[in-house]
Amino acid sequence: MSSDAEDGFGEKWTLARSALDSSRRVSVFTGAGMSAESGIPTFRGEDGLWKGRRPEEWATPEAFLESPAVVREFYQWRRDLISGVNPHAGHLALGSWAKAGNRAIDVVTQNVDGFHQLSGCPSVLELHGSLWSQHCHVCQHSETDVHRVSCHCGGPLRPSVVWFGEVLPQDVWRQAEEVIRHSEAMLVIGTSAVVYPAASLVFAALERSVPVIEINPQPVLGDPAICISGTAAKVLPQLLKGL
Ligand code: OAD
User: Domains of the chain by range and CATH?
Assistant: First the structure.
């Protein structure tokens, strides 16, 4: 399958680069597709984590309280998988661009892998939490040792990821809304944009009529977004080159 990036520098490509180039604040909204080429499965793709798995058995507080060992094992499997792979060329291009300081770049991610931080992005808001920390189900105490199972209060420690039916961390959410409100362009990478409230940030940017550039082998946004069909690892290094 060809992609816009491989096809050359068409009109969408020029529009996307010029929108990014002329913006002083850019928000970057990412989903599981961002890390797919590192070898981390998405949720809804062919080999996605939710294919053949019922999320309510793995990613709800009820599932955790009923079978903590099973849920912990699922998250440890995901940590092990991520520990064995690396950020790809797209993560690194984004990290270098964000670090360069030519403009303010805030990443708002649904991903819990920590790869944006690892590749140098200075500002990352994790809407769905992180695989690399835990907190107590009872007293909310935060814990960086992901192997501990009990809090000092006796309560069970759980992964600090947002589960179905839970609210997003409110401080992070408020900061994300602020970022979107002030951004002059938005890059949307590797998300199906179906999980709310996270997806509403993308639609808020479209409503504000700021340029929204989507990178996805199967774009989901349509007009007026500038949709570049291609993968994160292939498109980002070229798209951001020299900006
Ligand atoms: P999805 O699995 O729903 O969507 C992944 C998107 O990435 C799809 O649109 C793919 O076409 C696209 N994609 C696949 N490979 C790609 C690549 N190499 N480069 C760019 N794009 C690619 O993942 P999310 O939208 O992140 O929530 O899912 C949102 C939330 O649903 C997750 O954060 C998770 C899940 O339930 C929680 O766990 C709370």
Answer: 1-40+87-127+165-243 (3.40.50.1220), 52-84+129-161 (3.30.1600.10)
